[in-house]
Write a sequence for this structure.
């Protein structure tokens, strides 16, 4: 189990953390030493093995936390936001190690706010909003479940029900939702090619089109579609 | 019960204590031994204190060193490890019941307090001699009293460590440990409070009184003034050990499962 915040034993060196963790889980001393060595190597911490972890950077602590959790080779590994706050290089290394571990037949339960991470790593994905499961499936299934796949977030001077109705009739548009007085979310089969049509409908209705944001099919669109809110709201 | 895990955790605590040995040594012994030197040597030789005071002081200093060591060894790591870093989680998640993690801490603290007690006797004796009389007439009684005192210090450390926040450590020393030491009959025997009858009764709620008097009773067989009877000391120390352990385990559980 790896918590979101590193909870390493600050009284020990990196290698000792792995060795004692192995001992807590009943590994004999030879197996502990060999496993610690290979994990330090795999997580690129070999030259830091004899250092106290107090002085480690956030990325190093995170790597060591995951190495520690793998020390006793658990069948199920819980990872809470494993790549939060990591530099891209470390994040890619972690993803690679997580995939490898999964390929050895182990289950990994990973919680994340990062949709890219969920998309990249998960075989099966549940989206939880305020404790409620709002979608469950493979990333591909979930992305396909968004009407059309593309999301155009539009901002007008002020829209009207008539305008929204007309937008609905544009080719490829699957669903139009009013956000507030000025905004509308438009789900469609394609993205940029719709803009000209939207702009001309708006100008015919005497409404100014102020902003358009196009998202390709993504899990974030799925979240927006189900909750009506972006991830940061 | 998973003894492999238990002993692995004990090995971890021994390893950490060994690494911090010099710091622990200075932390534990410097102050009591300076006290021994000033009160037992300087004050006695200059005639302000009688020669017999040396023998009364040594068991008290032993009690202080043991209690300080045990409390420090258990409470300080717990306070730190239960803070935002939650360092203790790796042990709480190990394949062993949560309460046994606390029991292991108590055992590690007890061992450290025992070592402190046994080291301070020769150290203080060297500073105080000549004129200090220390004899172990009944090794069994001595072993019982010393073990109960060591256990009391570790259980006290557990109860305090799980009840005090990091920002209140200073308060723990000034409000709990310092009054305990000064009113714990460490620097004087309980019978010296004869002229303060109310205080003499009130201090009986302080477990350190029984620790000091118990050690005095086993180390100084014929003291110039009487001390608390040994059976009472043994009963009181056992009761305090059990009470503090129960409170400590409850507090530990509350902190660990939150």
């Amino acid at each position: 189990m790896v918590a979101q915040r590193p909870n390493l034993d600050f009284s020990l060196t990196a290698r000792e953390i792995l060795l004692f963790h192995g001992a807590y889980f009943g590994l004999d001393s030879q197996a502990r030493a060999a496993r610690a060595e290979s994990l330090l190597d795999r997580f690129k911490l070999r030259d830091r093995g004899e250092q106290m972890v107090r002085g480690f950077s956030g990325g190093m602590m995170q790597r060591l936390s995951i190495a520690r959790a793998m020390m006793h080779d658990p069948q199920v590994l819980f990872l809470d936001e494993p790549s939060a706050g990591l530099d891209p290089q470390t994040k890619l290394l972690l993803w690679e190690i997580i995939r490898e571990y999964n390929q050895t037949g182990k289950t990994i339960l990973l919680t994340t706010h990062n949709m890219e991470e969920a998309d990249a790593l998960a075989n099966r994905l549940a989206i939880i909003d305020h404790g409620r499961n709002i979608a469950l499936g493979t990333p591909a299934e979930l992305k396909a479940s968004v009407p059309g796949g593309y999301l155009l977030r539009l901002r007008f001077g002020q829209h009207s029900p008539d305008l929204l109705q007309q937008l609905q009739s544009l080719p490829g548009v699957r669903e139009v939702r009013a956000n507030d007085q000025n905004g509308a979310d438009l789900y469609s089969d394609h993205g940029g090619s719709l803009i000209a049509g939207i702009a001309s409908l708006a100008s015919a209705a005497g409404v100014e089109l102020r902003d358009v944001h196009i998202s390709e099919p993504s899990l974030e669109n799925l979240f927006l579609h189900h909750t009506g809110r972006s991830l940061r709201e | 019960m998973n003894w492999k895990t238990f002993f692995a955790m004990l090995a971890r605590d021994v390893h950490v204590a060994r690494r911090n040995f010099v710091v622990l040594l200075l932390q534990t012994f410097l102050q009591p031994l300076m006290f021994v030197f000033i009160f037992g040597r300087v004050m006695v030789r200059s005639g302000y204190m009688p020669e017999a005071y040396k023998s009364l002081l040594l068991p008290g200093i032993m009690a202080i060193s043991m209690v300080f060591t045990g409390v420090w060894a258990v409470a300080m790591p717990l306070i730190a490890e239960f803070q935002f870093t939650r360092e203790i989680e790796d042990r709480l998640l190990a394949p062993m019941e949560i309460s046994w993690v606390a029991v292991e801490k108590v055992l590690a603290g007890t061992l450290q307090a025992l070592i402190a007690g046994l080291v301070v006797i020769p150290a203080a004796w060297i500073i105080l001699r000549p004129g200090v009389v220390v004899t172990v007439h009944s090794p069994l009684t001595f072993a019982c009293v010393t073990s109960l005192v060591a256990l009391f210090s570790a259980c006290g450390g557990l109860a305090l460590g799980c009840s005090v926040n990091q920002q209140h450590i200073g308060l723990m020393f000034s409000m709990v440990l310092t009054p305990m030491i000064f009113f714990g009959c460490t620097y004087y025997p309980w019978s010296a409070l004869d002229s303060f009858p109310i205080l003499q009764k009130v201090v009986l709620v302080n477990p350190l009184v029984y620790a000091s008097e118990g050690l005095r009773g086993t180390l100084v067989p014929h003291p110039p003034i009487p001390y608390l009877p040994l059976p009472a000391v043994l009963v009181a120390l056992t009761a305090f050990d059990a009470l503090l352990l129960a409170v400590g385990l409850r507090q530990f559980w509350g902190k660990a499962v939150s």
